[in-house]
Design goal:
The protein is built from six helices and twelve strands. By secondary structure, the chain is α+β, with helices and mostly antiparallel strands.
Length: 245
Amino acid sequence: MKAVAAAIAAFVVAGSFAVRAQQPQAPARAARDRAPIDITGYWVAYVTENWRYRMVTPAKGEYRRIPSSRAALPIINAWDPAADERAGEQCKSYGAGNIMSVPGRLHITWQDADTLKIETDAGLQTRLLEFAPKNSATAGAAARSWQGQSTATWEPAAGGGGSLRVATRNLRPGYLRKNGVPYSEQTTITENFDVAPLASNGMLLLVNTVVEDPIYLNAPYVISPHFKKEPDGSKWDPTPCSASW
């Protein structure tokens, strides 16, 4: 009798597993529905660091605070904004390696349920942050661009909230600073986006950025541009790339 009871129990357990296996799985929730923070809206640069290098074009040859390698020095010393303009390379300082440090505004929206879109009025750039990136074969075949290819993931915090982590690669060579301090096509960029309240009832977008380049940097270049939220897009001011100002 014990053997019969055991066999019946095993049959029941196996049957329950089979039923569960046949039940349809709930579809994975889209990134938009899983967002622990909201970074959408209009934001304006809140310049709290490197003011002298961001608000005014630094002098030729000035690369302090950037760990540039010896290989970068000839490019730094040869910087010629007029030559960049003639070559159609006036957007070199508006690539993903520097665009978040360019004074101006951001407009962040959801392009679709798994893709955040960041538009900049400075340089008319568009970044797409993909939570469901294309397969590696397709990604590797894509042409290099100023904004490269960005893969995004949510990083929930233990106590609630969280942050957005973005990894960017497949870049065209560009500038880390308006005056020609270079980064190469082998550059990778890691960013963490967070939000924080302001004492004046406003909101800040904090973007901790780490730029790594085995060619033109001796060490990671770390910056933390901030943005203050605006109520609407009434101050949005689209301006094309310029090699100098």
